[in-house]
Amino acid sequence: TRANCALAFTPPASLRSHVSFTVVVPGDPIVAHVGSTVILPCWISPPENAEALEIRWYRRDQFNNPIVFYRDGKIQEVQECFRNRSSLALRSDQSGGLKDGDVSLRLEKLTFQDEDSFHCEVSGDRKYDSKVVDLKITGESKTTIQSKPY
């Protein structure tokens, strides 16, 4: 029937190409001092409004335990150890924020345990991409001296 033909219609490549994007992050690790605040830059290219997209920041193999999970226009989940010290933020003063495709992560009160690889994943209708930002923490580390039993 004619309705079945409409369902099987595949848009030409010229129409499909504008629905995809690439997640972009810096090539080098982000270095921050213990106790400070850092922005892990992440954005989509070409720029598009990310407010209707799903944004997930997570560590290594912790996809199901995201640091921040944004969907339906608001943050849905925040990992316990990042509660009250993580948010989506602007990567620079010139950024247009989510409306411009900026999905950067702000982390406050950094600890040495925060040093890790962070995945920035953005997904939407028929589109998805993910990249990794490495965070290195510098500063005074309190080494634990273990006494040997005699």
Largest sheet: 6 strands, mixed
The CATH topology of the domain at 44-139 is: Immunoglobulin-like
> Percent of residues in helical segments?
under 10%
Mass-distribution shape: globular
Strand content: 35-45%
**Distance, first to last CA:** 87 Å
Domain Ig-like: 11-138
GO molecular function: signaling receptor binding
Pfam families: V-set
Protein name: Ig-like domain-containing protein
What features would you describe in this structure?
The chain is mostly beta strands and 150 residues long. It has a domain at 44-139: Sandwich (Immunoglobulin-like). Helices cover 7% and strands 38% of the residues. It contains two helices and eleven strands; from the N terminus they run H-H-E-E-E-E-E-E-E-E-E-E-E. The protein has helices at 2-8, 13-16; strands at 22-24, 30-33, 38-40, 43-45, 54-59, 68-71, 74-78, 86-89, 104-107, 116-124, 127-138. The strands form three sheets. A six-stranded mixed sheet has the order 2-11-10-5-6-7, with no helix packed on it. A three-stranded antiparallel sheet has the order 3-9-8, with no helix packed on it. A two-stranded antiparallel sheet has the order 1-4. Strand 10 (116-124) and strand 11 (127-138) form a beta hairpin.
